[in-house]
């Protein structure tokens, strides 16, 4: 066993498709969304009003502020998939190039870095999520099973000083190691 994909246990009975390549020399394994999701356009809220209000400390209703925070925060699309790989390998999650062009969907972290020690971590079993922000003018509906991003396995290198820093055991993702 070198590297590959498995369905995380909470999706065991949902007939998810493991990531796959669509052409002979495709580098990326396409990941599907595990759930139907609506990704609201960041322009949907009264964006300028909220920004103006915050900046000038004028009245903005708690509702407007809540909506602003919700819509401006990236959404995490669950894939229901975990990836195993050799310890010197990493899985890079990249956007599909058609996503920004056709649907205004961007991956705000640029790329996702899926560490080998994320697999089966005690916090979330290593489920891979795709961060998405919709900068388009329409809300976007993502169907369950729709391809949303691609994963590329790569080897990575260590710096000469690598053993100087103590290593922790990974217990989750998205800031689990602190700030
Ligand atoms: O798009 C992504 C990026 C990361 N991850 C998971 C896998 C990765 O191993 C873990 C940690 O990612 P990263 O190190 O980039 O984020 P962090 O903010 O430094 O979190 P942590 O403190 O958990 O390392 O989160 C995803 O599922 N999707
Ligand atoms: Mg990290």
Automatic annotation (TrEMBL):
Which Pfam families does the record cross-reference, listed alphabetically?
dUTPase
Q: For this protein, what reaction is catalysed?
A: dUTP + H2O = dUMP + diphosphate + H(+)
List the keywords (alphabetical): Hydrolase, Nucleotide metabolism
Is Secreted there in the keyword field? no
Q: Which InterPro entries match?
A: dUTPase, dUTPase-like, dUTPase-like_sf, dUTPase_trimeric
Matching SUPFAM superfamilies: dUTPase-like (SSF51283)
Please state the Enzyme Commission number of this protein.
3.6.1.23
Protein origin, superkingdom: Bacteria
Does the record's keyword annotation contain Flavoprotein?
Answer: no
CDD domains in UniProt? trimeric_dUTPase (cd07557)
Q: Which residues form the dUTPase-like domain?
A: 75-178
Describe the family membership recorded for this protein in Swiss-Prot or TrEMBL.
Belongs to the dUTPase family.
Record's PANTHER family? DEOXYURIDINE 5'-TRIPHOSPHATE NUCLEOTIDOHYDROLASE (PTHR11241)
Name this polypeptide is given = dUTP diphosphatase
Q: What is the lineage of its organism?
A: Bacteria, Bacillati, Bacillota, Bacilli, Lactobacillales
